[in-house]
Amino acid sequence: MNGSPSEPAGRGEGLAARLAAVDARIAEAARAAGRDPGELTRIVVSKFHPAELVHALYELGVRDFGENRQQEFTAKVDEVGPLPGIRWHFIGQAQTNKARSIRKAASAVHSLDRARLADAFDAAADDDARLDVLLQVNLTDDPDRGGVAPRDVEALAAHIAGCRTLALRGVMAVAPLDERPATAFERLRGYAARVRAVVPEATWLSAGMTADFTEAIACGATHLRIGSAITGPRPARG
Q1: pTM for the structure as a whole
Q2: CA–CA distance, 143 with 137 (Å, rounded to integer)
Q3: If you average pLDDT over residues 37-52, what whole number do you get?
Q4: Domain count of the chain?
Q5: Containing domain of residue 42, as a range?
Q6: Which of 82, 102, 145, 206 is a good FRET partner for 94, with 20 to 30 A between their CA atoms?
C-alpha cells in the first residue's frame, strides 16, 4: 500500500488512527485473498474537505488523492500546490467541455466512458505527455448512470488506445446499491479481462469504496477509492 502513517503536527490522533485502521483492513483483506498489500493503491477521496486535510494526510504518507467535481478539483489542486510525489485522481463524471481543466490538474482520470470524451481529453493535451485513464463500466441496467455499457467495452478500449496522448491503464466501476458488491465486482473482473484482450497493459482495476473495499480486493481491485473511513464525516455544504 502507498504511504506509511506518522502523526502530522497540529492534527491530533484521529486522522492518523483512521488511516492506520483502514490500512490494516486493506492488508488483512489482501492477505486473505492471497495478494500482496504492496500491490494496492489506496486513494483518499478528499471531496468537500479543505486543502488543510490534504496536507495533513500527505504528512502521514498519503500520496494518492481523489476528487469528483471539476471545479472543486481544480481549485483544491491549485490551493494544495506542488508536493513531491502527489498524485491526483479524477474519479467523477466528466463533461467534454471540462476536459482541459481536468487534464491540467489530473495525474489520472478514472471515468472515461465514451469515445467523444476520450477525444476531448486527447485534444486537451498541451504536449506529447500521456494521461493515464481508466475505462468506466456501468454495472447497472440504468443507461443514465456513468459508465460504458458492458457490450461496448472492447470498442471503447480500442478507441482510447488510438488516442495519441492517452494511456489506457484499466477499468473502473461503482457497485450498484441493489446488488451484492462481490457479485458486481466479479463481473467487473470479467470486463477487465476483455479490456486487457485489447490493451494488454491495462491492468488497473479501480473498485471499492469505504463500504465495500474488502470485497473489491477479493475480486482483484488494484486501486481503492476510500473517503469517510479515513477523512471522517464530510463538512456540511452551505
Answers
A1: 0.93
A2: 11
A3: 97
A4: 1
A5: 14-231
A6: 82
